[in-house]
């Protein structure tokens, strides 16, 4: 029997229930490792990104700081902060890590901030190219380049993926996926608009291949070989998810819609969207397995779990981690983020404890095949 361990960082705001029932041929065991220590002096308001290396970095979108903890969960320090000065930011569009650095893309200040892994400020790279706005995800590519996911300001160009050089001076190339997935879209214009804010999940594996799942997940993962500059060359079918991925309501009012996950206006029409099947994160383990986190509605319940694909991207199975009963017209959107770096394959769960308090627990997840 082959045994692997899996990391995930995920974040949700409801009473936590972890289910370790096995589906398909995979068996999962969850082992609690530590609790990140917080108190009145160490407040975590809105932790949207967690990166684990030799240290644990928690990006807090309330005070715009990166809080640092050791592996045991003990608080060490914080850096960043709200402002326009060196090392300060007005937003954290994306927080990511390279081999030796931590970086934040601050769109409102039009700059990328770079720190050491210890949190020492190094430099700021000011973005001069107006094409680069509001990236939603970043992956390192060949150490010196960055692959960013965002839509260009030009509405005629549907490119979603963009490779930039190390200092963001030059866009090396761009490519799109819209034409490939458009046939599956129920309302292509609405879904294209949604992709500007929630493009989906990406990862670049050790062989230089990009894997992508749209945010509205219909059970298909797409592969792009970055080394050959070819178009999307493979698709992989995962867990059997219904094409009924969202409910759409057209409204007379604008603004937030109660009991719905997303609301926005398009061509003078106000929409409210209830999400039923979404992609929430993707990464490759050190053993070469592709892990894809998804959330979907089934039999009146909201399920959170992950798909597992082997080194050849054959689908192995789905594992449910969290189940939440859906009561009445309660919104089904639960935010979950994944980002994994270290070799220990840790899982970070952030639970809302009420009155603005967050509890972050660290787990190890073992999968036996």
Automatic annotation (TrEMBL):
Q: Which Pfam families match?
A: DUF5128 (PF17170)
InterPro entries reported for this sequence? 6-blade_b-propeller_TolB-like
What SUPFAM superfamilies does UniProt report for this protein, alphabetically?
A: Calcium-dependent phosphotriesterase
Q: What is this protein called?
A: 6-bladed beta-propeller protein
Organism lineage reads as: Bacteria, Pseudomonadati, Balneolota, Balneolia, Balneolales
